[in-house]
Structure formats: C-alpha cells, structure tokens
Design a protein that fits this description.
By secondary structure, this protein is α+β, with helices and mostly antiparallel strands. The protein has two domains: 89 residues, no CATH class; 31 residues, no CATH class. Helices cover 24% and strands 14% of the residues. The strands form two sheets. Strands 1-4-2 form a three-stranded antiparallel β-sheet, covered by helices on one side.
Length: 143
C-alpha cells in the first residue's frame, strides 16, 4: 500500500518535531491488512517544495507485508521526479519460477446461466438493509 498520505509525523521523518494520533490510526489500519510501515533504503523527502522558505516533506509512504523477508524495504527515487514535485517510491517484488495454475470462468451472454446469475444478484440486492441510507453522506459512511 503506497500513497501520498499528507501526514507529517516524526515516525517517518525524524526532523519533524511532532507525532499525531492520525498516524497511529493509519498504522492500525495498515496492520489490519497485515501491512507495516516500510523503511526506505535511502531515507529522505518524498515531496520537494519549489516555494522559498517551505521545507521538503516526507508524506509519501509505503506499507509492505509484515514479516516478509523479500518485501521489507523500498527506495525513494528523487532523481525521477520529472515534472512532479513528488519522488516516486519503488520496491522490488521477487517473482519465482513457480507455475500457478489458473482457470477462467465465463458466462455466455444470453444463456440460461447468465439469466440465473442476474436473478441471483437481484435477489441478493433486494434483501440488503438500506433503511439507514437516507442521504449521500450516509451512503458514503456505510461504504
């Protein structure tokens, strides 16, 4: 999981003097997906300011699979910003020579199987409890 989280914190930027409970919440959410904050191999800013007096920031983060020996670090690539003020983050993902068997299932359009599938979807949608969704804001809260 990687993104510009727009959170300044001394957990990932030792030169920033403060810690935020929002960071703790982010760490807890990541942990619920078995992800942990990755430490960059080359620590440094991830956003570079072009405004005089404004400091560069560490606000782009990467969370990787907890306890993984192969996926435990990432790189910040400040030389690859190009026209952006953000440095790309990258990690190496090892791919083994293992063959993974997979199958693809499809439903023929217009078939009885497709009609049964659509009926099944409709019947499942009809039993959803939507009584507490009375506005767009509540819909966003439910999702």
């Amino acid at each position: 999981m990687t993104d510009d989280f727009n959170i300044r914190d001394n957990l990932w930027n030792p030169s920033f003097p403060f810690h935020s409970f929002i960071s703790d919440n982010l760490i807890m959410v990541a942990d619920s997906f078995d992800l942990s904050l990755s430490t960059p191999i080359n620590p440094g800013p991830t956003r570079f300011s072009d405004t005089v007096g404004e400091s560069n920031l560490v606000i782009d983060l990467m969370f990787l699979h907890c306890g993984s020996a192969e996926l435990d670090r990432h790189f910040i690539l400040p030389d690859y910003c190009l026209s952006s003020d953000y440095a790309p983050l990258t990690t190496d993902i090892p791919i083994g020579d293992k063959i993974v068997q997979s199958t693809k299932l499809s439903v023929v359009p217009g078939s009885d199987q497709e009609k049964d599938f659509i009926k099944d979807v409709i019947s499942n949608l009809q039993v959803l409890n939507i009584s507490n969704i009375d506005s767009v804001e509540n819909l966003k809260f439910v999702l």
